[in-house]
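Archive entry: two folds, one per protein. Generate the first.
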Amino acid sequence: MAELGEHMRAGALADLKPGEFGIVLGIELARSLGARMGDKVVVITPQGQVTPAGLLPRLKQFRVVGLFEIGMFEYDHGLALIHMEDAQKLLRLGDDVSGVRLKLTDLFLARQVSRELLINVPETAFVSDWTRQHANFFRAIQIEKNVMFIILTLIVAVAAFNIVSTLVMAVTDKQADIAILRTLGASPRSIMKVFIVQGSLMGVLGTLLGVAGGVVLALNVDVVVPAIERMFSVQFLAKDVYYISDLPSDLQWKDVAYIAGVSLVLSLLATIYPSLRASRVNPAEALRYE
């Protein structure tokens, strides 16, 4: 979870002091409860207490001392924080705790660390990590990533087909020039190289421009998307529908190099057919009606 102290909309985590029974609410939770700073909210625990009137839930009144907004509706609407000593008193745990949350420097080691902890903790303990809490969500992201790669490949293939059509038209238009070069001693291989270089330059320039534009957009997506939303009065990621309300961007240079490599290879392959066609131009046929 993100550092909540950096996402406080009002108050601070330091305002949670033992014995004062203060509470920090997510901004969406506070909005649904109609609670503001300084208001009183009643917390009901799942543990009941036996009274002459029967089994009643345990209640405690807390004062709102802070509001936070992470940007994920799940936490902004379903998370509230109180001081650990107040929680121990409320749940009658004494000096014990019901759980411990670990924060790792490298979040991708969470699964490995959880497996190591599972071996060392008692059998009654339950160990979970962020990859298990939203397994379906991250699996969907992986599937979407694979589909996006296929879509990008198809887009590049369409662009490569444009290179093919452009070179074919160039070969058709320059048949007389090609025939003259052949009569002057140019070999079919040299003619082929000319069109391969032409098509490759088109592919390289297009790839460089596309990569540069994509990298710039990826590094500034947190600025571009809000600007578009304000301009057209739309919201791409509604908080109550999606897990996140902002579009994050993490530039992976390995993926950039992979996509650029595929683009260059397809561009090079697109030059083969027009180049072969140019190298097979018959000078006599091409110059017959010139």
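Generate the second and append.
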Amino acid sequence: MKAGFLEVERRALAEVWARKKLAVTLLAGNAGLAAAAYAWLWVPDETVIEVALSALLALAVVFAAVWLNGAVLAAFHAVTGPLPLRLALRRLPRFLLWVLVVAAVTVAAVWLAGSAGKVTQYLASFLTLRLRRPVSPERVGWLYGSLLRGAWCAVVLALLPLASQAAGGGFGAHAALKTIARPRYWVACALLALAGLYVPGKLVSWAPEFGALSFQAGSMGLRLGLAYLLAMTAWLTLAAVIGRMGREESKS
């Protein structure tokens, strides 16, 4: 039976709501990791011991972030249950492989973004010659940046069901591939990317030009908190969508 409009997202949100402890753990855990990462920036590195301590702290933050978010993906391989920290730790090497692939894709995207100036100048000149009308480098640059961000997001989202399977093992790799091939998965991804990336980005970048400095500081704190809550809720819901679809495909 076909799911109704937004039915997949509603069921995923219901799973997230039913696991309030998981949501609180993710919110507190990632906030703590962000604070630790910020504190790492202030660690002195004047001696060999301080450099070693800085490196150990960085590794500890990365390890904890990978472990926590791997456990979040694994949690939705079952309908109910606590946060599977032991399972995620045991399967961490398999999950880490996909984390490294995502990191490599991100590094490549950042490198391509850094080359945007040369690329857009070349494309603008090429299109101007071919079309015999001036093409603005700014317009080409906007299109290039939009396509690059879209391609990066699509590749990462295509890798997530495989990363989820590696983290939890509740469904097989074949089910993960079938999940990626489902148009409904990409509809859910688009909606959750809108709610978890676009809207939070607009909240953070928006700056009111009125009121006292204290009002602006309070507004920034409120907007950051709301953006963080939206982003984490979207991430949990996406993990639930992947888990639900993976379970369905493994039974079909």
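Annotation attached to the second fold: The CA atoms of residues 127 and 133 lie 8 Å apart. The chain has one domain: 7-251.
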